[in-house]
Structure formats: C-alpha cells, structure tokens
Amino acid sequence: MLTITDLTLKYGQSQILNGVSLEAHPGQVTAVMGTNGVGKTSLLKAIAGRHTYAQGQITLDGQPLDHLTAFGAARAGIAYVPQGREIFPMMTVLENLQSGFACLDKTDHKVPDHIYDLFPVLRDMTGRRGGDLSGGQQQQLAIARALITQPKVLLLDEPTEGIQPNIIKQIGDVIRTLRDRGDMAIILVEQFFDFAHELGDQFVAMNRGEVVLNKPASEVERELLLSHVSV
Ligand SMILES: Nc1ncnc2c1ncn2[C@@H]1O[C@H](COP(=O)(O)OP(=O)(O)OP(=O)(O)O)[C@@H](O)[C@H]1O
C-alpha cells in the first residue's frame, strides 16, 4: 500500500499542495480528480521523485520513500506515465520500451511477454519510430514502458487526453486488467469524468492543493463527486 501523509509542496513562494494525505491499495484504482491547476500533476510528480516537496511522508508497504530521486522511486516500484506521454519520437517502439530498463539490473533487461499481450498493437510495431505512432498508440506505448519495471504502484496522468474513443476504451480495459491482477496500486489522475467514475474504486477530489473528498466508490454519489470536480 502506498501512503501519503500531510504532503506540502511549493513552487517558489506558491504553495501548491497543502497537507495532502491519501492511501492507494493494491488491486484498486484510486482516482484523483479536480479542475485544472488544483495540484494533481504536482502530487504525482512528488510521488514519482520528479519534484521535491517541503513536508510530509511517503511510504510503500511501510517503507519510507521520502525525497527519492526519479531513479530511486522507479527502483522502489513506482512507475509514472506523465501527462503528454513523453515518448521518444526518434526512437523505435522497442527502444522506447527498453528505455524503461534504466533502473533495472542487467539480468532483468527483457520486455516481459505480458506487455505485448496487454498491447498487441505494439508487437507489430517494434521497429516503427515512436513519433510515427498515433496519439492513442503513443499512450499505449507510454503505459507499456512504465510496466517494464513490473511496478507496485502505477501513476497515470490524464491517459485519455487527446485520445480517440476506441483507444480510450482499450486503455480502460488495460487499467481494469492490471487492477484485477491485484498486486498493483493504480493512481489515476483524470479529468474525463465518466472514465474516472467507471474505473475508480476510491475517489480523491482536490481543490486548491487540498483533499476535499476521499471515499470508496461505494460511498460516493455520482452527483456529489461531480460537484467536487466541476468548475
Ligand atoms: N514548474 C512550475 N512552476 C511554477 N508553478 C507551477 C509549475 N508547475 C505547475 N505549477 C502551478 O502549480 C499549480 C498546480 O499545477 P498542477 O499541474 O499540479 O495542477 P493539475 O491539477 O495537474 O492541473 P492540470 O489538470 O491543468 O494539469 C498550478 O497553478 C500551476 O500553474
């Protein structure tokens, strides 16, 4: 289980996260929602070691992960799929996947078969350049690359952004498959309400850097959630 306690993060003098606490359990999707600029991406970056934070604790299965680098967080089992995907356009699909090896021991430098089972389209495209893929295929590649490390925690930042509906459905199916395996905690930051609402087992709504709602799906009415994440 990933536990975030009282996280505070600043950009210069601007306080962006103010005492954020949440838990993400293996076998569950924790959907973090809120309007633009409330701090969702900053929260994921702090967990992934991509942004320093001022105060607070992060633990994974009881082990402190405080103030790790991105490399350290990846080694600890945290995988991050950034908003905008950040795939390497001039590298092939296979090379993009292999870039996920960076934090693994040499003996683990192999693309696991289950990655291609999850994303069959990538199997036929290993030699294509990343930049030649459609937006949806690039998103699939970005998720596949994150899974190379066989993470305990998967952080997804707006995976449906700019993606056509049929691929959004496929991405939803992959998230469900990963969730149902039961060994991975998934934190999904998403502004596409219906997508997040369908997938979320736990809902965390943020406003101005604070958590304003944190409840299991069974205890949250759709309208209440919608009211928390609408402008
Ligand atoms: N590198 C940065 N330097 C200064 N301010 C930043 C930086 N990155 C983000 N911010 C500001 O921090 C606040 C939170 O941004 P963040 O991207 O975490 O929010 P968000 O909820 O993910 O929004 P969005 O859905 O638009 O991505 C915003 O006011 C944003 O302008």
Automatic annotation (TrEMBL):
Please provide the record's keywords in A-Z order: Amino-acid transport, ATP-binding, Nucleotide-binding, Transport
The protein's GO terms of the molecular function aspect are: ATP binding; ATP hydrolysis activity; branched-chain amino acid transmembrane transporter activity
Q: Which residue ranges run through the membrane? A: none
Record-annotated ABC transporter domain positions:
2-231
Among InterPro entries, the record links this protein to: AAA+_ATPase, ABC_transporter-like_ATP-bd, ABC_transptr_urea_ATP-bd_UrtE, BCAA_Transport_ATP-bd_LivF, P-loop_NTPase
GO biological process per UniProt: L-amino acid transport
NCBIfam families recorded: urea_trans_UrtE
Protein family (similarity comment): Belongs to the ABC transporter superfamily.
Tell me what this protein is called. Answer: High-affinity branched-chain amino acid transport ATP-binding protein LivF
Q: What organism, scientifically named, is this protein from?
A: Flavimaricola marinus
Q: Which gene encodes it?
A: livF_5
